[in-house]
Amino acid sequence: MAAPRILVAEDEGLAAMALEDELLREGYAVTLAPDGLAALEAAAQEPPDLLLTDLRMPRLDGSALIRALRAARPDLPVVVMTGYAPAGGAAAFAADGEAPISLFAKPLDMDAVLAELRKLLNRP
Amino acid sequence: MNPFNQLLPEGPQLQPGLCTLVDADIAYIHLISDIATGLAYFSIPAALLVFVLRRRDLAYPWVFGLFAMFIIACGATHLMHAWTLFSPDYVTEALIKLICAAVSVTTAIVLWPLLPRLLALPSPGALAREVEERRAAEARALASEARVTAFIDNLAEALFVIRINGADDFVVETVNPAFERLFGLRGADIAQRPVAEVIAPHLLAAAMPHWQQALETRRPVEYVMDAETMLGPRIWQTVLVPMTGADGTVESLLGSARDITLTRRLQADLLQSARLATVGTMCAGLAHETSQPLNAATLWLRNARAAAAELGPADPAARLGTALGVIDSQLRRAGDLVARIRALPGAESGAAQVFDAARCAAAAVRTAAGQYAPERIDVVLRSDVASLPVQGVPARLEQALLQLLSNARDAVQDRRLRDPDAAAEILVTLAEDGGEAVIEVRDNGTGVPDALRDVIFDPFFTTRDPGRGSGLGLPLAAAIARAMGGRIDVHNLPDGGAVFTMRLALAQPQDRIDQPETVPC
């Protein structure tokens, strides 16, 4: 069975590189995108199993990216990493009938994030 | 020869007094008329006498005496005339006539010069008109006084009059209902009593310099007082007008006080909102921008630790591990700070629900009481209400209350540094007031200096030593209260210590029904 693919949308290059390292070590396939628009293009080329995204990004921000991807795939699991949580928390992104969204504040507690990823992707 | 004798008829001699009358019928008419006129003339002065005796306020009472004498004299001539019909006592009659003439002439002479003066006296009609006018004026005055009284009674401003009997002898003369409402004192209880007996010492001490100034300068004085009254903390603006007597000394002070507590609170809230809006935007930006480098550094630290773990247990690797551990803990500390800053602007994490603030307060008091017991600090909860349904996030409210309790604990500990034997008590009271849940945290610590009262809710303001307290506790508590449609005010107690009052909007009844009441805090 192929490794689950995680699409990482993060405009901070250094953080994105560290994340990629962590995810690869966990055995995931990783696609990096420096902003929302690049993430949309990457998703079109290779559909991800999970979106791990920042909120504030150039060109297309995280909220718009989530809406665009979930329009096509309402069950796409999403994990948000943000320096500033929106009012209402994760519920602010979710529409009725969609898969839940997890919210993590930066700086990330990576162990907690990895545990959440395993849960969402049903990995031991 | 007497010419009258020719008139006499021939025949029997008549009685001496009737000699001039030839007809007996005419003689009787004379007799009866004179007696009747004489008696009537005697009765009229009696009526005049009664009138004069009853009406002591007559303008010229002697005129009535003169009239009485005149009428009696005239009456006497008539009676005398009747008498002479039977007895020819003409000398006496002549004397009486002489007296009558004298009195009549005197009266006639006196009357004419008196006439203009009598005419000048107001007639009963004029008097009645004047009386009517005066009554109308009096009614107007009464109505006007009633209006003034109603005006003073219903005036929003508190009025008071202080009578100055001497240098230190000030007496409350009167106060209006607005005064009673503002200060919680009954006018009947304090009127005509020395000010020192009825006004709280701390209020009197604060007001007295202004009163003295008004006395010395004899000019109106305006001042603002901010103090604890019988009804709680109030701010009022007073204009004091000295009222001087004829000799120029100040006899009383007329004061009008306007309650500006709400206005001041609104101003402070507006100022605070404006400041917090700026600070909030700054905090959000700061949190976001700081979280990015912290995030990258934290992620790379994990990377470095993983690499170090592969080096083996040699010495340099252990030192590297220690160093990385230090960096890790410091990054976490910075991360915690960012999390707290992020929470400041009041953006809620977690969904709002209706819950019982009383249970939340009880939980916070339990936690604090347990924590502070070893420090010999009592935390007591007193509640006037069974429950306080509010809307928000229970855990956030508990966090805010714990923050206020922690603040109170710091205050009583500061007091202990100065006064080691001081009893340390924190009292939490719950009440409902005007559609708001009111939670008070009262300590007997050092109080909040006036100069700091406006800044203690500012983020990063702290009176603690560096490393103790981030200056985010009270701002966080205030932000939580704001997010729940409320606010936190602070004021000092007259006998030391401070009260932090958190007011939260009570949940609407329809909201309460929709929500289960058993939300745990």
Describe the protein in words.
With 124 residues, chain A is α/β, with parallel strands linked by helices. Chain A is built from four helices and five strands. Chain A has a five-stranded parallel β-sheet with strand order 2-1-3-4-5, sandwiched between helices. The mean pLDDT of chain A is 86. With 521 residues, chain B is an alpha+beta fold. Chain B has four domains: 3-120, no CATH class; 155-259, Beta-Lactamase (2-Layer Sandwich); 265-343, Signal transduction histidine kinase, dimerisation/phosphotransfer (DHp) domain (Helix Hairpins, Orthogonal Bundle), CATH 1.10.287; 353-514, Heat Shock Protein 90, CATH 3.30.565. Chain B contains 14 helices and 13 strands. In chain B, helix 11 packs parallel to helix 12 and helix 12 (394-418) packs antiparallel against helix 13. Mean pLDDT of chain B is 83; it is low at 513-518. Chain A binds chain B through residues 12, 14-15, 18-19, 21-22, 25, 56, 81, 83-89, 91, 105-108, 110, and chain B through 284, 287-292, 294-300, 302-303, 306, 331, 334-335, 338-339, 342, 347-351.
Attribute tags:
heterodimer, A: 124 residues, Rossmann fold, B: 521 residues, alpha+beta, Beta-Lactamase, Helix Hairpins, 4 domains, 5-stranded mixed β-sheet, 14 helices
